[in-house]
Amino acid sequence: MRTFRKCAIFSASAAAIVIAQQAAAQDNGAAENGYNEIIVTAQKREQSLQDVSVAVSAVSADALANAGISNLQDMQQLVPSVTFGNDFNQAKVFIRGVGANTSTTGSSTGVALHVDGAYVARAEAQLTSLFDVERVEVLRGPQGSLYGRNAVGGSINIITAKPTVDTSGYVRLGYGNYNAITAEAAISGPIADWLRVRIAGKNELRDGYGRDPFNGWDVDDLNRKMVRGQAQILFSETADLLLAAEYFRQNDNSGAVHYYGPAFPGVARLATLGPAGIATKPRDLGSDEPPSVDTRSQSYTATLNWELSDAFSVTNIANYRRFKTQLIQDLDISAVVNQLPNPTTVQTRTIDAKQWSNEFQVKYDSDIVNGVVGLYYFGEHQRPRDQVGLSSTEGMASNIAFLATRPTTIDGVAVAPGSISLAYADYLCDFPTGVAPNRVCLRSRLNTEAWAAFGQLNFDLEKAAGLTGLTLKLGGRFSHEKVSTANMSVVMTANANPAAGAVLAFTDAPYTQGGTYRQKTFKDFTPEIGLSWQPDRNILLYYTYSEGFKAGSGENAAGSSTIVRPEKMKNHEVGAKLEMLDRKLTFNVAGYWYKLKDLQINKTVGGGPTGYTTIFENAARTEAKGVEIEWMLRPVHRVRLSGGVSYTDSKYKDFVTVDPLDPRNVAQPGQPAYDPVTNPDSTAFGAPCLPGSLNANGPCSIQLAGNYTRNSPRWSYNVHAEVDLVDDEQAGTVTLAGDMSGKSTVYFTEFNRLEEGAKAYTLFDAALRWTSAKDDLTASLWIKNIRDTLRASSTFAISTGRIIGATWLPPRTYGVTLGYRY
């Protein structure tokens, strides 16, 4: 921790933002100082990064390639204010303590992701790789005016490389340990005077970081393929249409949740299932089936740009995205094969989601006023299906026999034999006719329809009123969202002695008959007002008040009709952007303070017909304050330094909830209830709830005021250094680069336990890179996570297996990358 603080202090005092890799660069004649002006579109129009009164980082394609960044999770090495993780094949992106607080599919994220202006809704779809990009922009804080939908914590904007005027392209090949093979290529250029095209693709293959010691298959391997085609039609010098199509395919054993520890140590009745089948090495994993991911994604975007005059222009972005994925995960994280009547634990989650959106923008630019106004529409149909049983392909035949011949209970009410339609169960489980369904079969329908009107205008008060260097920013967004949820399910549990008892069954009426179907409409207006002062071109000071909004949503959970309340944020931010030492030093700092109401949070507690109960709720109040510093320095021609440090103090002010790791809240079928006489030390971690506490006659609820929010390390930082060891007109350039990045303790749940968190860590990377004199050939030797630090990127308390599972940051990797561009 002492080392960490020293590094953070060094990073802050060395001064400056805009990570050296942020050269999304247009050279405005200042290259003699090694300075490239960074152009961003964070406010939906081209601006210099140093002229934007928004906390934003930009990372270029070259920086991503040099740092070996191939996905969003790796981005946290370059942008310390962002925390990335994943579990159950879902991206967990957090900015300033706000992000994806759910592990069931269907609900929305707190940080928006856009690809060329088109919103990507599903957290699972955000795990696709980065390839052939121009830059990645990370906007921090609520983006209520221009981005609106689910951008409470911020927005990550991926800007892909576009078709070029001249023929150009590149090829990049890499090989590393774990037999990692990466191939990426692109070609771009004109077909005719009115038509330009670009085609790019990438392939990633890798052996597993671990293996199943009982069955021998790889764990956390990689097999991804992706391709993107673009065609730009030039109608005139002032109008063009860009058509883009993208396809992504993944089929591997990645994203597995590993064994992190028992959920209830010392509580005999809640011991882990199948302890003999748990792998002893943290990166290994025992399971009944390979923990597989099978994903297909396709996206189609049409972007029309038309300059109507010197002052007015219009843009229209239309997008359709289809996303299908299947995840198989053994929820006891054990190779001991499930046997009835014990709980069966092989989960199969299938998602079929369709989304479509259209955004129409009108941009205006004059001497006094500039800005953008627009209309936005978004629709999504999700059809997730969750099953838990003996396997992904084998059901529970004995249960089907019971359902047909024995008395059954539905929601606690006895019904006659045969009252549950087996055809209905087969429909939910999607098994072939005659094959018994799993013990849990859930089929959800989650729909969203949203539209918004938005705008942001900047008034030059110097030209309008003679106030030197002052600009007033006014913005706002009116949002209207209609969401619906329905969760049809069948749950079956066999008795230990089939001859002596019935089958417990829970079912829900079909979607068309009501049942769990619920629909709600949410409306909100999120204003934004800011004032900036730029006394000269090297100094920008600003203050912004902004609000954020995320509509309520449902989730896929057996029998659930819950639609939680919307999240609402009020945020204050002050910042400074400075260029000093003849523009050799860039220093940006932002401070913020916000209040967040009704943070949406998901967790599971053991018990109920399925063996687990999903809780989707709102945390009443959250507050946060923090400071972010980023800097770039070029002291001499051959040396480039950069870095950043982020301080985040994000805590709950009011959150009464149930602790999943308090055994008194867990009543597994067939097990005795909690008995304080025979087991006085009731809890697995911490002090037991006392008589007279909240909900003393029911589940033991606790007040979490003062606890840190999920995925919100108090400190995070990065330092990057590059030195040109050789810079010769004939031999080319040889560059030695190094990175150091780290975070303080991270808690992955609101209960702030290290058993569900990760201790402070620091990662070190290095690379030796050669670039030819013509800048067309490159060769790089690289190593990442030099010390092979083992840290979790997320954890999850899995009620079914009574264990805590974790996903890991990558281990030490090294290799060589060769590139050619023309």
Can you walk through the features of this model?
The protein has 822 residues and is mainly beta. It folds into 2 domains: 749 residues, Maltoporin, Chain A (Beta Barrel); 48 residues, no CATH class. The protein is 5% helix and 52% strand. The chain contains 5 helices and 46 strands. The strands form 8 sheets. It has a 26-stranded mixed β-sheet that branches. A hairpin with a 3-residue loop joins strand 12 and strand 13. The longest helix has 13 residues. The radius of gyration is 27 Å and the shape is globular. The N terminus is likely disordered.
**Structural shape:** globular
Radius of gyration, taken over Cα atoms and rounded to an integer in Å:
27 Å
Q: Write down the CATH class of the largest domain.
A: Mainly Beta
> Got a strand count?
46
Unreliable stretches, pLDDT < 50, 5 or more residues? 3-35, 397-419, 494-504, 691-697
Per the CATH scheme, the topology name of the largest domain is Maltoporin, Chain A
Total individual domains: 2
Task: List the main descriptive attributes of the protein structure presented here.
822 residues; Maltoporin, Chain A; 2 domains; 5 helices; 46 strands; disordered N terminus; iron; transport
